[in-house]
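Throughout our pipeline, every protein is held as a single compact record rather than as scattered files. Such a record has a labelled line for the sequence and another for the backbone structure tokens. This encoding replaces a full spatial description with a residue-level series of whole-number codes. For reference, a complete record is included directly beneath this paragraph.
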Amino acid sequence: MLEVKQVSKLYENDRGVHNIDFSMQRGEIVGFLGPNGAGKTTTMRMITGYLNPTRGQIWVDGLSMADHPKQARRKIGYLPETPPLYPEMTVQSYLRFIANLRDVPAREQKLRVGEAIDKLGLQGREKQVIRSLSKGYKQRLGLAQAILHKPDLLILDEPTSGLDPKQIIEIRQLIHELGENHTVLLSTHILPEINAICNRVLIINQGRVVLDERPENLGRTMGETFEVSLEVKGPRERIITELRGLEAVAAVKELGGAEAAPTEPAAASADAAAETAEAASVKLLVTSADRSDIREALFFRLAQAGYPILEMKRESLSLEDIFLKLTTDEPTAAAPSDNEEEVAADA
């Protein structure tokens, strides 16, 4: 549905984006992340035809943005960070105006406008002047104009900005529904939003793509080890000894403390007997030796030893952790070529 091939947009001092390369299939909802100034807005403006790239090619449903810009734009719905609204118009007159701009057939305009108003919860505000709308309703209206012509590709820049929690949930549900028949590129600073609605994550830093992966594969991509947090009922030393006896376990650490050192097997003392009687619990972090899933092995070993597991949870890097790691470190990409150092005038 969308192909971005080796696209660069260069400004003075080598700023801009460099060799952006990714593609999207129909029905995908891709989260587009990056710190301020990373190049997200520049990339989206090139995809939508508002900016011409210095070099590279962009195709929308097989149409080149360079060779067939008008036809390609018809397949795109775009919501910029600041919605393109005319404050002196009413909601209904504005949507009809957009329908004309988008070449929606006259016989379908009333139906399309009504559908957009219903989907975005703008009922009862059709005659209201846009300048009198709250920020949340202006955001809704901006999204309504983006979907009015039923585009194949939606480019959304901060679509839930300024919305209250109820509205955010409604917009997320709408994006989910749109993703069933459309391709959605979603830029947002709300990282939990990516986890909630996106099936792919694209992270850009300093003008270059540093990650393109599905959310469930992020940990493996980052070389993450397999770790499990446990709360087990029983004596601390014996539980640690049991866990360290597994070949699949590389380390056992008591949560809140240093790595737990196993004790030598010994006859049960009065203190140990008292500890067992009290049936206290211990919280541990267990690391796999080879990044494999060790939860089943932990369960059977502790069940055989007679120590019940009160809680077991896999620990993994959050999207926030991954985002900070990728956007804080210095870029590892090769230095720009001589061609990349050329300065292009803004379109």
Notes: Residues 227-315 form a domain with the Alpha-Beta Plaits fold (CATH 3.30.70). The mean pLDDT is 81. The longest strand covers residues 2-10. The first helix runs from residue 40 to 47.
